[in-house]
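Thought: the user asked what Heme lyase CcmF/NrfE family subunit looks like in 3D. I have the sequence; next I should run the structure tool and report back without guessing.
Action: structure_tool
Action Input:
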Amino acid sequence: MNPELGNFALALACCMAAGQAILPLIGANRRDARLMALAPALAVGQMIALITSFACLIHAAITNDFSVQNVAANSAVSKPLLYKITGVWGNHEGSVLLWAMILSICGGAVALFGRNLPSALQARVIAVLGGVAAGFELFCLTTSNPFARVWPAPLDGQGMNPLLQDPGLAFHPPILYTGYVGFAVPFAFAIAALIEGRVDAAWGRWVRPWAVAAWCFLTCGIAMGSWWSYYVLGWGGYWFWDPVENASLIPWLTGTALVHSAIVVEKREALKIWTVLLAIGTFSFSLSGTFLVRSGILNSVHAFANDPARGVFILGLLALVIGGSLLLFAIRAPQLTTGGLFSPVSREGLLVLNNILLCSICAVVLTGTMYPPFMSLLFGKTISVGKPFFDATTIPLAIPLMVFMGFGPMVPWKRAQMWPVLRRLWWAACVALVALVVATFRMRDILPVLATATAVWVICSSIADIAERLRLFRQPLGQSWQRARSLPRAVFGAALAHAGVGIVVLGIAGMSQAAHRIVEVHVGESEMLAGDSWTLTDVHPAEGPNYSALVATIEVRHNGRLVTTLHPSKRTFASQHQTTTEVAIHTNLMADIYGVLGDKHGDDANPTYVLRLHYNPLAPWMWLGGLIMAFGGALSLSDRRVRVGAPRRAKTVDVVVVQ
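Observation:
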């Protein structure tokens, strides 16, 4: 599996993607069954070619083929095997190839699992995916070729950024990219619907599983990225409102709105135009995030490229994909029928309110992220929009969103009376009120207090929804158990996802009460933090596979009882001439005890060491809640009625076979 084979497979995939983008569209327009039948075959062929190409790049990294420029720049002989593999996508060229491969897998999945789709719709969806894939593969071949050779080949590589040499990198980027790219499928369905001029309940049912799957991956990817920054960067925080972090949050917000609006299309055939626009917007934001990272506009530990040619190419691709789709939407959307009517006080009404608040938060985050680079571009002024702005603008929108989230699953469709809903949720409201009172006495600021109360409200209302469906405590437990066995898994999945949101918010509220100190101590000295005694007992050198380290031992005691022993370290990577911190964390799931070793001062006879000490209450709940949210979405997808139970369209279009 040499690099030439990988480069050939990439070029072959690009040619197949171009054919996939053109021929099925012609076939769907002419009702030519033979041309439409090419769509699944080309999609699967492109997928196989790109998997082969990616495997060749991994093989080059594992075998230390430093004649490949990408391997020479991002690997080294001494680098552990795991990081040789993960380093393939820890750089610009490899990450773009990974993006293209995941996109091809999405197209292959539609080809293999979309056999119940009308042939014309499937052909159009696969053709749109092929057009986007062709653009990224052409980008790989022209400006970001991961198989470019270097001569003479160096004896050893430069290695990768030490910050990225972490097991989290093995999972975070592929999962996050799958979420980004997964929204290409709802986007393709939206474009196909605009071309066809038809959106109905069946379309909503076909779109929703793909949107939920992408949302699950993106949720999990964001949670893992936040966790990675928490334990790798060593600053004690979990979310810095970094522009690239925001670039992943923005499509998550619109993707969440898309998942909920697709339900309205499926159940009531309403919000059709809005749902199509959300599908276009969510994938457009995913592509825009790619442009921001790879163009060098945003400075971040995540940013890979500063090559203007790459930025111009991606900007052109964005203009073609986003501009073309919005132009098509402007032309064709007025022809779509509006669908069912509903009262403002109904589940549809609450879902519309959910969409408005989610998109409002998205608009705030987008404005705060893009305002500094636009000010720099237009007026040459350097400004910073940071955590205070985002906290002050997003939290007031998130709190009412969570309040209405608790009501949503309990409210009937079309028209509802609120009093019966309130009667079912009285105990959840009482628990939330108790949480509000307790938080008022234990927390310093009003926003964490409100966040805690609304988080408890969302969790309890999710439990109340399931209890109401099972008629718990209103009939014998045996009958409730039978109802639980017959209840769709999608119901449990939705309740879990909502409860996961509440758990995440509880973690964020808890972290607002975190305590930390930066101290300089001798070996043997102690400091107090959060009622615990932190003692630096030892500092000693150690050797790793491709680094040297200075390891500290910190004993944490509470009233004389040993709670834990932390071993934070500083690692020096000789090949990159870079030093990183290795955080030590002890958790009991209710709080994290978090220690970081800083610089050494003084002479060797009487040195002092800087320590960063943190006590972070409820910190693990943020990532636990994110995983629960993703698991809830996956549980919904495991329900076959969600995946393949699409209603049949009232009328199908006959296909003319051209002889």
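Thought: the tool returned a structure. Summarizing for the user.
Final Answer: Structure for Heme lyase CcmF/NrfE family subunit predicted. The radius of gyration is 27 Å. The beta strands are 515-521, 526-529, 532-543, 548-558, 561-566, 569-573, 578-582, 584-587, 591-601, 608-617.
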